[in-house]
Amino acid sequence: MSASRPAEATAIAAAVADRRCSARSVIEQTLEGIARLDRGVNAFTDVLAARALARADALDAASGQGRVAGPLAGVPFAVKNLIDIEGLPTRAGSKINRALPPARRDGALVRRLEAAGAILIGGLNMGEYAYDFTGENIHDGDARNPHALDHMTGGSSGGSGAALAAGMVPLTLGSDTNGSIRVPAAFCGCFGLKPTYGRLSRAGSFPFVGSLDHLGPMARSVADLALAYDAMQGPDPDDPVATTRAPEPVLSTLEIGIDGLRIAVAGGYFARSGDPEAFAAVGHVAQALGAQRTVELPEAHRARAAAYLITAAEGATLHLDRLRTRPGDFDPAVRDRLIAGAMIPAPFVERAQRFRRWYRDAVLDLFGGVDVILAPATPCRAPKRGQTHFVLDGVSLPVRANVGVFTQPISFIGLPVVAAPVWLDDGLPLGVQVIAAPWREDLALRVARHLERTGICTARIAELT
Amino acid sequence: MPETDASFEPERYLAATAPLLGLTLDAAWTAPIAANLRVLAAAATLLADFEIPDAIDAAQRFEA
Lengths: 465, 64
Fold this sequence. Notes:
The complex is a heterodimer of chains A (465) and B (64). Chain A is of the alpha/beta class.
């Protein structure tokens, strides 16, 4: 592998499989890059050098004995630190969880990636307990946006976006309850896949909102997303909402193109309350795809409100004992939201869940006439770190609670989405959500791949020293 | 989100609810918690204003 530009996962796997390079050399180079770059970026909370090198040596030894390499042979990856890593407490961005016993085994998705030959190299910074859109963390320090270190990475999978944008690893895992993969993908200028709710196992990860939690991959290329996604699919009895559907591989479908796909732009709610650049990014993508039709997701503003209520109530329920016994050890911004969430009357939450069912049916009707819908990922580019408020449509709003205005109504009903990065100018990137009907990740990824191939959506590595 | 009903007083509500939940609140936390309660109340109002057919079940265990 070249020392000048970090390779993508597909290239690394091919080189290791063909024995053009060893897995050990890949890991050594990756560790060197993390040591050189992460002091400024703060994407990693744990680096697993010994484990990764041992795994690499085992892969190289197996290869030397003629064993067939897995599809992710030698690919280094890192995971948001709410995913279990054997031997470490699963901190989930918190101070409190550091007292937990070490995880007895890796999370399900880590095991599946490693079974395909990938090599876990570390745990990644995140917003406390995933209740965050900023990437800021008062315990571990903020993850910093490699494209402008004084700006937010977005969250809560902030380290997952930053590690990619800095070129430290080609593949990360994040979680997305209301937008926590798509927001950092947009702010850090990389690709992210939030699959259909239930598609990928969440077993062995610290939960936030069981009704809405998803795990998914982030990468600098669509092929890398697909490669990892295919390796992670499959039923898992350890996750009560995991699908029993057989895996539906997508990698071989990426180059089919977009002919025949009915692509529309989300209007109404998704065309207001954002900076002009957010809508310009969608327009740029829509024009490239020839998407002239506009559709309106009915009652999207209420969908966001319902997601907001369910998140606060379920999150608070999960953390109630900790709020009773250790309130002073939370990030105050998280604590205050959770305490408020604990006080929501049950009928409000039940009504939100009933609305969810209504909204799902209404949006599925929409997919009878379109295959893919485009929407902004965020209402703005990455704000500055420490910025608490921004102005949307003339109204000053808290950043932490409102970056997800366009992502929440989508994850609320579990639709699969690829967040694709757009660079309109020399400034920071924006993201566009490429949204498909449930279980049609293949369509969202095909469209994203088309946008990548035509140069409309690309991930960039920041120039860091 | 819409305005919250003016009769809702989040400071009094949280003071009354905290003991029920077993929460001990520092006085300095009242203002930010109350602010969050106002937003949540506004979200609930938005949903209350929308008629959902009685036959619609809750999606507690949601399947896409």
